[in-house]
Amino acid sequence: MPTTVRTSRDPLSQVADLIVVFLAQPATVTGVAAAADTALDGVIAAAIADNEITGEAGTITVFHTAGRVSAPRVAVVGTGDGSTDAWRSAGRAAGTKARALKARKVTLAPDDATPDHVSAAIVGFGAGNYRFEQYKTGKGTPVVSALKVASSTLTTAQARRADQLVTAVQGARDLVNTPANDLTPTALALHAKTLASATPGLTCRVLEHKDLVRLKAGALLGVAQGSAEPPKMIVMRYTPARKARRGEVLGLVGKAVTFDTGGISIKPAGGMEEMKMDMGGGAAVIEAIGLIARLGLPVEVVAVVPSTENMPSGTATRPGDVVTAMNGKTIEVINTDAEGRLILADALTYAARIGKATRLVDFATLTGAIVVALGEVYAGLFGSEAEWTDTVRAAGEISGDICWPMPLHPGYAPLISSKVADLSNASNKRQAGAVYAAQFLREFTDGLPWCHVDIAGTGMIGGAGTGFGVGLMLAIAEQLSDRA
């Protein structure tokens, strides 16, 4: 999406293919909407009277202007109750419609809406306007090339933040949507290195197979041994010029299984093509640390992304095998399709012990159980410390990447026990699957304040990546920035 241009000019005089005005619920014509209604001989008011326009969040009605204003079309979008979520939905609807109309130049006219609401509309617009068409022949659907926002409240810094967030979310979506034959662990690592080289204050180190052997990262290596593709541990670090809190290091960890067959415990064929998206957590973490660095937030961040394929072969880990994780704990592999928690185990240990993180958050498309529990609306949130969990949940409410708190309790501990090793990676009891996975991960956090965000339901919807988690991580970092 192009850089947002703020303008103080009358939005109805802007040269554009589409002008978007906003109405709350219940709908009344005020501000720019009233001016548009006057120019269009009362058609907006008539549509409201006929209940065709209600102001419900995300609803949109398009009017042809017949040359009465500078753009050929005016869209009226509902902002519902006026919440930030509603403005985000309104922006998404406008972005989707702009794409459908092949509008290249768009002006948003949010009147005197707050900066947070205008920013939410821009972010929503970017989400709605996004399409992944890199593998389609032909020209594809045109994207918006010029976006203007007629707002007296939005500052340049706020517009830049919104633009940068859109860029990062779209970057994560591109990674998740890319086929696994092109996005291998090696390709993902190269992307991270390229991003770091272009971003001041950001560095990237890629740990290769020999490094993982030296570090005794047996959990990650165990998952990787069935694939011809070598595993990678991507370690990125952002060091700001100044720090809001001396000694504070935010640790971000993301699962990046670039293709997951399930290994020897192979998945059903139906829908397996979507398992190219099993690296959604890692993609979000890579793009989020890049975003935090570009915005120059005063928080040191270390990101650790373990990446591998999970494939069945003559060299693959078998059910019943025992691997030793980086922290020395032994793990009986009951189910090779519970591989995400294995690679996260070594990544969490690395972030805590070598990355020197003081608090941790991990993101992973981890369990089908969380999809059953929460669907595609909330991510599952597990935490070891109430204050840190509350911080992460609040960041979700701010960003729109909403999370619902799930239980962690000693009563679940028997589920991760093994008869032959310290831990097992799966339980034969069909209960509390998402809780079980989080309970397992907690064993590798070295007692740090830690949260686990299960994005299996929210990170990939309808066979496409959403970029869920990028905005959440930005909001977490911003909250830590305010703790001077």
Task: Tell me what the structure shows.
The structure is a single chain. The protein is of the alpha/beta class and 484 residues long. The protein folds into two domains: 4-148, Leucine Aminopeptidase, subunit E, domain 1; 167-481, 3-Layer(aba) Sandwich (Aminopeptidase). 35% of the residues lie in helices and 20% in strands. It has 14 helices and 20 strands. Strand 12 (322-324) and strand 13 form a beta hairpin. Helix 10 packs parallel to helix 13 (433-442). The relative contact order is 0.11. The model has no long low-confidence stretch (mean pLDDT 96).
Features:
484 residues, alpha/beta, Leucine Aminopeptidase, subunit E, domain 1, Aminopeptidase, 9-stranded mixed sheet, 6-stranded mixed sheet, 14 helices, 20 strands, 35% helix, elongated
Question: Could you give a short description of this structure?
Answer:
The protein has 484 residues and is an alpha/beta fold.
* Structural class category: alpha/beta
Major sheet characteristics: 9 strands, mixed
End-to-end distance, in Å?
Answer: 34 Å
CATH class of the largest domain: Alpha Beta
Per the principal axes of the C-alpha atoms, what is the gross shape?
elongated
Shape-level CATH architecture of the largest domain: 3-Layer(aba) Sandwich
Count all strands and give the number.
20
Give the name of the CATH superfamily of the largest domain.
Zn peptidases
**Mean residue pLDDT:** 96
Radius of gyration: 24 Å
Give the tally of structural domains. Answer: 2
- What count of helical segments does DSSP give? 14
Low-confidence stretches: none
Q: Can you tell me the CATH topology of the largest domain? A: Aminopeptidase
The percent of residues in helical segments reads: 25-40%
**What amount of the residues lies in strands?**
15-25%
